[in-house]
Amino acid sequence: MIQEPVVQEPAARQGGRQRDPATDSAIIEAVLDMVAAGATLTGLSLVAIAKQAGVSRNSVYRRWKTKDELYLDVLATINEPRPAPDGAGTREDLAAVLRTLADRVVDVRASSVLRALNAEAATFPRLHRRYFEEIVAPRREAMTAVLRRGVERGELRDDVDLDLVAELLVSPLLARMASGSTDHLDPVRDTRRIVDLVLRGAGAPDDDA
Amino acid sequence: MIQEPVVQEPAARQGGRQRDPATDSAIIEAVLDMVAAGATLTGLSLVAIAKQAGVSRNSVYRRWKTKDELYLDVLATINEPRPAPDGAGTREDLAAVLRTLADRVVDVRASSVLRALNAEAATFPRLHRRYFEEIVAPRREAMTAVLRRGVERGELRDDVDLDLVAELLVSPLLARMASGSTDHLDPVRDTRRIVDLVLRGAGAPDDDA
Amino acid sequence: MIQEPVVQEPAARQGGRQRDPATDSAIIEAVLDMVAAGATLTGLSLVAIAKQAGVSRNSVYRRWKTKDELYLDVLATINEPRPAPDGAGTREDLAAVLRTLADRVVDVRASSVLRALNAEAATFPRLHRRYFEEIVAPRREAMTAVLRRGVERGELRDDVDLDLVAELLVSPLLARMASGSTDHLDPVRDTRRIVDLVLRGAGAPDDDA
Amino acid sequence: MIQEPVVQEPAARQGGRQRDPATDSAIIEAVLDMVAAGATLTGLSLVAIAKQAGVSRNSVYRRWKTKDELYLDVLATINEPRPAPDGAGTREDLAAVLRTLADRVVDVRASSVLRALNAEAATFPRLHRRYFEEIVAPRREAMTAVLRRGVERGELRDDVDLDLVAELLVSPLLARMASGSTDHLDPVRDTRRIVDLVLRGAGAPDDDA
DNA sequence: AGTTAAACGAGACGGTACGTCTGGTCTTATT
DNA sequence: AATAAGACCAGACGTACCGTCTCGTTTAACT
């Protein structure tokens, strides 16, 4: 799991001043703020981050050798695991799974980081892989599980491509995250509307025959 | 329209060597290639672009004072207008409109630029606005027109939010563009499948009542 | 001799527009003015000279391939030969020879060029050699001739080093040229005073024994 | 006095790495060497100096914002004050004062810098003024004092222009410095000969009447 | 309490890239 | 063919960072 930051504990501890934990978070906050303000992952430098955090360069470099490692810890901050939906019904379960995503999309700093990460995946392969393993994959599995159960329950057609359905459900939120048009998004209402429309379809009933 | 590049024609022409048009395109190609290779809009420098284009710095700065202006011309390159769908039927028209988008998504260089532009919208507001006016808005109108006609024809329900339907149709492609997972996308097949699923819905028929 | 400029006559003259002789002198004047204004020989560029002369770069490069060649022609402009003194008397002859030098020292443009040339002798060896052969050597010979005649006539001691006497006579003017403190120099009066003092000496008569 | 270089001490010293004093002198040495090798004051760039000194550009710019300021410190290096002559006799005192100058003339680096400075006085007015105040003026006063005392003692005529005598004494050395023909100069012997000749005069004794 | 060791801010340092400017060459249109 | 205008490449210059390093200072653990 990503939960545990990789800030290296210095080996043997026999004396000396302690690291200020406030510095750790000040730096990570600085990254989140700057990225949310439009900075690029590549464009950010440890120096600039230090300045924004009100901390000496030294204090940043002491903790992370590279931006890559720092960003791993930043990414860990974003992931906020949720319990699996309770299985009340397919419609509600889908909405619940989507909510997890929608909440992150609405969080400006989180969505900014993820948007930046997508745009620069090639530059940060390790970071991008981690993003997939820790954030994307679990959600996808949760979604798939709900969909499969929906078919079993007879609440979903059994002749549809579930992967496509999942993509259809998730994409509106992802697209908003990608474009940054996150303002008018109401996590509760909009996830509900998306689920409804995907389940019901937009075509006229006759048209289905 | 964006079609006409803004490369400034120097005022009065009475003598002097002519600008090499090959240089213009070499520079724009360089930008497209570098962005497709993972570069950031902010991260690119006119110097690096010149190097990649095999052109002197001077020749770049002579044409564009800022990256912003250069990118405007790059963006113009991407926009490839398509005729409106012929109106054979809602299903076919929707697929046709989506195709325009899907083709751009599949084009690595185009989608890379747009992905980068989305990620750095804050840094290039003028560019982003232009992107909306010239590329996004026309497609959206085309899509809306088709949908409205579908309702009039009775091929679409009249109780659905057409904006949401449009978003549902478009988002899978946008999301792929955003994440760069563009490899397995088949413009013809996949647009068809998306349209079908959105029209028909994924829910079991009984469930609709 | 330096008198004949080395401006290359274009080989065969078969037709086409004629060179504008005004351009030649405009360029040389430009050099003189710029050097007098403080420019360095190395620091001047043909481009800057063209601009100052109000002439296209082309027109300069067509005439002189290098600064070196151009400066040779500039130097030729400075040398203004004078007839040998008439031999009325040593005192008058010395003053006459010094006058030639003093007049050049007073000419701001000439002295500026020579001062610059001295400072950058290492960079323009050919030019510096030419300067010696064409300007310095003739004057020195003239001076030596007058001094030798003075000894023969019994107007000068026969136990002094004539080279040193010559140096003593010439140096005040050269030093002024070198330092640029040329303002308060009156060629007629000051050469006279220098000659008088050198002949007579500053020591009290008794002191000589 | 000029003795104290103007390398700016950053105001408050509370921390940070110390400047390497070896870097200071390496840079100044570089300037002296390059000017002695024929470089122009204007032509030198802080970049070239840094390269020659084997130091990063940064380290130069950190110390001096402009060439002007750097050259002030270079000039300070050249000035080497001497005690006033002891007053044994006018002849000896004059020789002693001239020696100070002759030694500087013989020092290739010092004379190169001063020659360059004279040639480019217009470009570096502040530097040139300083040169006068710190180097020229004191020597001139020393010289004048000796001469005046010579008159009082009856060792010099009382009807000569002492300023002219001073100029006559000093100019041969200055002229050599200006022309760079410094090789065959023997400070001890030549100053002596100059003083002797100026005191005694070159004219035949009868000629004075 | 004194010693030791590390955290911390400040800033020197070498290196690299950027955008500007200029120099000399080449090309085009005009005279 | 000479000229003016200007595109073009090459390279230097001064600036701005970046990441490393070395200081002097402060804080905490361990004698």
TrEMBL record, chains A, B, C, D:
PROSITE patterns documented for this protein: HTH_TETR_2 (PS50977)
**Alphabetically ordered keywords of this record:** DNA-binding, Transcription, Transcription regulation
This protein's name? TetR/AcrR family transcriptional regulator
Entries under InterPro entries matching the protein: Homeodomain-like_sf, HTH-type_TetR-like_transc_reg, HTH_TetR, Tet_transcr_reg_TetR-rel_C_sf, TetR_C
The region called Disordered is annotated at 1-21
**Species in which this protein is naturally found:** Streptantibioticus parmotrematis
Give me the positions annotated for DNA binding. 45-64
Superkingdom: Bacteria
Q: Quick check: keyword Transcription in the entry?
A: yes
Taxonomic placement: Bacteria, Bacillati, Actinomycetota, Actinomycetes, Kitasatosporales
What Pfam families does this protein map onto? Answer: TetR_C_11, TetR_N
Where in the numbering of this chain does the HTH tetR-type domain appear?
Answer: 21-82
